[in-house]
Specification:
mainly alpha, 3 helices, 98 residues
């Protein structure tokens, strides 16, 4: 004979947001990542390792890095995970290199 099974009453699931607003890693980690990317972009431009570094109108590399961090955070929040939220892999799944 088997022992009787007592099940707890089911509780209704609380409604949660489709995309959580807080980063699971914490705000400090996200801020540190943004600072790291911005400093790296700025240092590459200051070292003149970018084309036409003498022109002040092309100092966009830190902002491109910031956009990349934002795209990565958005992809993680939406749940793209796995190989990462790459633009080419998400816009054309047949071309992804996984």
């Amino acid at each position: 004979m088997s022992a009787g099974v007592i099940a707890a009453a089911a509780r209704p699931a609380s409604q949660s947001r489709a995309i959580p607003l807080r980063p699971a890693e914490g705000w400090l980690t996200l801020l540190a990542t943004v600072v790291m990317v911005m400093v790296l972009g700025g240092s590459l431009q200051d070292a003149a390792w970018t084309p036409d570094a003498s022109n002040p109108n092309v100092n966009f590399l830190p902002w491109v890095g910031l956009a990349g961090v934002a795209w990565g955070v958005f992809g993680a929040k939406v749940g793209w995970g796995g190989g990462g939220p790459t633009f080419s892999g998400r816009s054309s799944p047949g071309w992804s290199c996984r």
